[in-house]
From TrEMBL:
UniProt family annotation: Belongs to the class-I pyridoxal-phosphate-dependent aminotransferase family. Alanine aminotransferase subfamily.
Lineage: Eukaryota, Metazoa, Chordata, Craniata, Vertebrata
UniProt domain Aminotransferase class I/classII large: residue ranges: 80-478
Pathway involvement of the protein, from the record: Amino-acid degradation; L-alanine degradation via transaminase pathway; pyruvate from L-alanine: step 1/1
Protein name: alanine transaminase
Molecular function GO terms recorded: L-alanine:2-oxoglutarate aminotransferase activity; pyridoxal phosphate binding
Native source species: Seriola lalandi dorsalis
Amino acid sequence: MSQQAMNGVPSRGKVLTLDNMNPNVKLVEYAVRGPIVQRAVQIEKELKEGVKKPFTEVIKANIGDAHAMGQKPITFLRQVLALCSYPELLEDNKFPEDAKKRARRILEACGGHSIGAYSASQGIECVRQDVACYIERRDGGIPSSPDNIYLSTGASDAIVTMLKLLVCGEGRDRTGVMISIPQYPLYSAALADLGAVQISYYLDEDKCWSLDVTELRRAVNAARQHCNPRVLCIINPGNPTGQVQSRQCIEDVIRFAKEEHLFLMADEVYQDNVYAEGSKFHSFKKVLFEMGPEYSSTVEMASFHSTSKCYMGECGFRGGYMEVINMDPEVKVQLTKLVSVRLCPPVPGQALLDLVVNPPQPDEPSYTTFMKERTAVLTALAEKARLTEEIFNTVPGITCNPVQGAMYTFPRITLPQKAIDKAKEEGQVPDMFYCMKLLEEEGICLVPGSGFGQREGTFHFRMTILPPAEKLKFVLQKIRDFHLRFTQQFS
């Protein structure tokens, strides 16, 4: 008998239980940090405690975390951040003059000249101006206004905020949001959390994961039976699939969004990560404005960028921005109110973003080193993209599309029927069973394709191309050996 019950007070359970918590939260799944990663962390602890394994380290190729995989920070970015964090270093002659100039400008825009102060909710004014200038340069002079820029805690935060604004209605009137399959699980997780309806459209694996408007039309027409489709999300360059959309494809998508009266969300965080010959990044905004006023004055859109990817890889600083286009002015007031509840995005992240959009110029002392480091990172990624595709395609039972951009490969794996049956027996999805076995036997952590979505009956995994070249070759070789062994074992 419990103490309370003994004192004549009936014992009561917890106030918050699995049965009475928010049901939407229970539906949220985020594979990139799911059960497989939790097991990887556990294995790392076991290795530290001296447990014998057939490997000496766990290689986490599950997440696009460049620095964790050994990529070195860009000198200029860190110099300015050091100066902003500890302004006494401004007196130190080890730091180049352009780094000091950037740091002074940022500090002057901060309350009490400190990056420890809150900023305006929409982000520091001068940073938003620099973002607008960057977008204008990128898009060949198409105007951008700092009033339409919202700085955010990584792109993820802005994406969730935007979805929050867009979701409404009940039953058949509930907002439907179109997302690609395979997709980055932030989208499905956010939609589950908000109780919105996910509308899946499939990318064409046989055509290098390209997007076809016929498939968008199929998806939207089917969805109209049970929800109100209002939003179309695009990831370009693609995650997890690494495709880069052609200009023609983007035009087709914009026309489709206008015809179907959809709000466009363009996730463009990998815009500098384009490797394939003949592939080029086109921003949705640039294409929209080049299509003329019939589109550029009517199609509502938000586009997103981040400091976490490209050549920077500064995930931990949580810097990002969103630009809104053709948004109803009254809704914009509501958006500004919504972001003000969180006070502001992290100020060090805002400072970092400022350097990304306003890097050293040719006449400045840091330019040569900056360009050398930037080029080295992107060249290495391009080489690793090529290497990954090449090696995977030599393995019977693995087929891999070219990694045109971003930082992942999403190869298709053929699994023997016996393995599929064994997985079902153990209550696991077949590609989860495969990835879990790979982790236990080789110490390599990947994310199963089922965490991103895939066509029924197909199996994949997502792997980042971030490990250093030598380690990447080692990982690819290990996966190759494992796949052959796995196929043998279950044939």
